[in-house]
Amino acid sequence: MENEKHHIVPYRVYAIVLLVLVVLTFLSIAITDIELGSYTVVGALLLASIKSSLVLTYFMHLKFDQPYIRIMVGFVLAVFIAVVIVTFFDYSFR
Amino acid sequence: MSQVIQHDEHYDPEGSKIGMWLFIFSELLLFGGLFIIYSVYRYLNHDAFHMAAGELNLTVGALNTLILLVSSMTIAMSTTALQKKQKGTAILLLEITFILAIIFLINKYFEWGVKFDHGIFPGSEYMKEEMSQGEVLFFGLYFVMTGLHALHIVAGLVIMGFALARVHKGTVHAGRPTLLENAGLYWHLVDLIWIFLFPLFYLIT
Fold this sequence. Notes:
The structure holds two protein chains of two kinds.
Chain A: H1 2-5, H2 11-33, H3 39-59, H4 67-92
Chain B: H1 13-44, H2 46-53, H3 58-83, H4 87-117, H5 125-130, H6 133-169, H7 178-203
Helix pairs in contact in B: 1-2, 1-6, 1-7, 2-6, 3-4, 3-7, 4-6, 6-7
């Protein structure tokens, strides 16, 4: 009955997500040890983005919620990215 | 399966969740603004940021990352336990989360303490005389952003304390777990912010 409204996420799912998050953390520490120049930053941020999307999807239940919350989160991220892009256009062409 | 019997109190789980998410959005944009400031200053003071980041203790940063990740899992599991009507497990998992949050703050205390001992704190003579403008900016941002994040940990402790008390009392239970879920959402936000703070301050050396 309640399951229709409330999806109960099994413990196993959370444990697997944690495992992946920990592996990605160590991976990001490992890749910054390698000298990749400016790609180091890109790599670290890319891994952070993957980690945060895992947190949003599973820990914060976006996968199991109504889609409108996902849409709102997407909108906020789009606004943020737009501000970042505008800011860097400003600084790059000064 | 016993449904919720008490209906005299207004209860709107969907509405509460939207409210929490709106609050989380404002928080994301608050830290987002700080991240933009960080990236602009980093772009303008590339070498100084690299040098200054080398001063930070990677081990402590990594340890705190692990602590937050594990605590995020335990609070998420706590909701599962509550929904499965395993009240004892839910309380235990919430208590573990609470303790992990305190351990995070203790680590932070010692980490900042070492910086203070080395004369690195906002407005210190050492920073004014020995450091370049870029390094001063780096540490300014470091203290503001990790400090604001630590304040969020403290707020998280308060929220978890409320959730713990309510679960104990039985007003938060399998039929109405929203308070615990929202406490979890908030805690995941704190984790989310740290996921970006960690590489930007500790890894990019």
